[in-house]
Design goal:
alpha+beta, PmbA/TldD fold, 2 domains, six-stranded mixed sheet, 22 strands
C-alpha cells in the first residue's frame, strides 16, 4: 500500500512534498458487566494518513499549504489519484508561510520491550485486582480492559523513514454506589505502561472511594477562599497548561510576552518550578513530523529557559525543533502530602478542566467532585468552580515529595495551589 501511495503522489506534479503515516494496531480487549466477563476479542487495524504539501506564491510571497486524507482499506489507482487531487486543491487555500519538511538520513526503528506473552491472562489479572476491592453495593458495573500494541511508520518525501512500536494497557471503569437515596456512577479511565499491581490496586480503591464521595456530595457552603490540592492527571494538566504558550507556535502567534530568560515565578515563597517534556519511553522517539525528540526543560528554577515544539513553527523562529511530546516532566517537591493536608483545604477528585492564562494572570477550573477538609473532618462537595491569580499561585505553589509516573505525566503526585476563590 505504501508503494502504491508513493507512486500516486509522485505522479502528481502539483504535489511539492508528502508525508505518509502508517499505523497498525493489535488490540486484545475484554468487557466485563457486573464484574463478570461478557466478551473478549482481538481487533487488528491498519490505517494510513497521507499529508499532501503544495507550495505556491501569492503576491510575491511563498506559501506551503497542506491537506490530509485517510485510507482505511484497499483503494484503486484512480480513487487514490482523485484523493490526491482533492488534497492539492484544499492545500492551495492554506496560507502557511513556506517551510521545509524534516529531512531523514537513514531508516531507524524502535520497539518497546514487553514480557506480555498472554495478554488475556494479564487482562484478567487487572480485572481481578479491580473487582477484589468491591463489595455488594460498591462495585464496578462495567469494566473494559485493553492491551494495545501500536506500530507507527512515518515516511516523507525528504528521506524520513522511521518506525516505532509502543504498548499500553487501558482500563475504562464505571464504579457505582447503590444506596438508599439513589444509585450513582462515575467514569474512570486509567492507562498503564507497565503492570505495577500496587498502583492498579490503589487506583481501584480510590475509584470506589470516589463514587462513595459522589453519593454523599453536597453543595459547598460559606467558603470564599481555600487552598486547592490537585493530584495525578490534574497536576499534569496544570503544568501542561502552564507552559503551553511557550511552544514555538505560541511564541510565533504572540500568545505571551515572556522571552527566554524571563521569570515565570515572582516573589517565590513556595517551590521553584522546573517543568518540561520527556519521552514516555525510549521507543517513543519521534513525533508525527518525523522529528527525533529529546527531553527539554521549558522552565528551570522559575525561569523560562527554552521554547519547544514541532518543525514548522521552529523554522519560523529560526530555531531547532525539539519535537512534539506529550509527557510532562517535573522534579519532586519537598513537602509530604500529610503536611499539605494538615490545614483546611479542598482536594480535587474530579475536575472538568483547568484554564491558565499567563497573559491575563488567570487560573481557574470547574469542579465536579472534591473533598473539603475543615480542619477536623472531610466533606464531599460538588458543583462549583475555583479561580485566582496565576502569579500569586505560582509564587506560593507547593509540590509533594510523593511522585507519580503516568504516560502523560511524570512528577509530583500532589500540588497545592494556595488561596483559590470559590465560585
Amino acid at each position: 500500500m505504501i508503494k502504491q501511495i508513493i507512486k500516486g503522489l509522485q505522479a502528481n506534479p502539483a504535489v511539492t512534498d508528502w508525508l505518509i503515516n502508517e499505523v497498525k494496531t493489535i488490540s486484545d480487549q475484554a468487557f466485563y458487566v457486573l464484574q463478570k466477563i461478557e466478551t473478549t476479542r482481538t481487533v487488528a487495524t491498519c490505517e494510513y494518513s497521507v499529508t499532501v504539501y503544495h507550495q505556491y506564491t501569492d503576491q510575491g510571497k511563498a506559501y506551503l499549504g497542506s491537506s490530509s486524507f485517510a485510507i482505511t482499506h484497499k483503494i484503486s489507482k484512480s480513487e487514490l489519484a482523485k484523493k490526491i487531487d482533492e488534497a492539492v486543491f484544499a492545500a492551495s487555500f492554506i496560507k502557511n508561510k513556506a517551510y521545509d519538511l524534516v529531512t531523514g538520513l537513514k531508516k531507524q526503528s524502535w520497539k518497546e520491550k514487553t514480557d506480555i506473552i498472554e495478554p488475556f491472562v494479564m487482562i484478567d489479572q487487572i480485572a481481578t485486582t479491580f473487582f477484589g476491592e468491591s463489595s455488594s453495593n460498591i462495585r464496578f458495573n462495567s469494566l473494559e480492559v485493553f492491551f494495545t500494541q501500536t506500530s507507527s511508520h512515518i515516511i516523507n518525501s525528504r528521506g524520513v523513514d522511521l518506525k516505532k512500536t509502543l504498548n499500553k494497557f487501558d482500563v475504562e471503569a464505571i464504579p457505582s454506589f447503590d444506596g438508599d437515596k439513589q444509585n450513582v456512577e462515575l467514569y474512570k479511565y486509567f492507562t498503564y505502561k507497565t503492570l505495577d499491581f500496587d498502583t492498579i490496586k490503589a487506583d481501584a480503591i480510590n475509584a470506589l472511594k470516589d463514587v462513595c464521595s459522589r453519593y454523599n456530595a453536597e453543595p459547598i457552603k460559606e467558603i470564599n477562599k481555600v487552598d486547592v490540592i490537585l493530584s495525578d492527571k490534574d497536576a499534569g494538566e496544570f503544568f501542561d497548561n502552564l507552559i503551553s504558550d511557550f511552544s514555538f507556535a505560541g511564541i510565533y502567534k504572540q500568545n505571551t510576552d515572556k522571552k527566554i530568560g524571563d521569570s515565570v515565578q515572582k516573589d517565590v515563597k513556595g517551590d521553584l518550578l522546573t517543568v518540561g517534556y520527556t519521552l514516555s519511553s525510549k521507543a517513543n522517539a519521534f513525533d508525527n513530523d518525523g522529528v527525533i525528540v529529546k527531553p527539554v526543560k521549558v522552565i528551570e528554577n522559575g525561569i523560562l529557559v527554552n521554547y519547544y515544539g514541532g518543525n514548522q513553527y521552529a523554522q519560523y523562529l529560526n530555531m531547532k525543533p525539539t519535537g512534539n511530546m506529550s509527557t510532562v516532566s517535573v522534579p519532586k517537591g519537598k513537602t509530604a502530602i500529610d503536611k499539605m493536608r494538615k490545614k483546611p483545604h479542598l482536594e480535587i477528585v474530579a475536575l472538568s478542566g483547568i484554564q491558565i492564562d499567563i497573559y491575563s494572570g488567570y487560573i481557574g477550573g470547574e469542579v465536579r467532585l472534591a473533598l473539603y477538609y475543615d480542619g477536623k473532618d472531610y466533606h464531599p462537595v460538588s458543583g462549583f468552580s475555583f479561580s485566582g491569580s496565576i502569579d500569586a499561585c505560582l509564587s506560593n505553589i507547593v509540590l509533594s515529595k510523593e511522585m507519580t509516573n503516568r504516560i502523560t505525566y511524570q512528577g509530583p503526585k500532589y500540588i497545592k495551589l494556595p488561596t483559590m476563590e470559590l465560585l
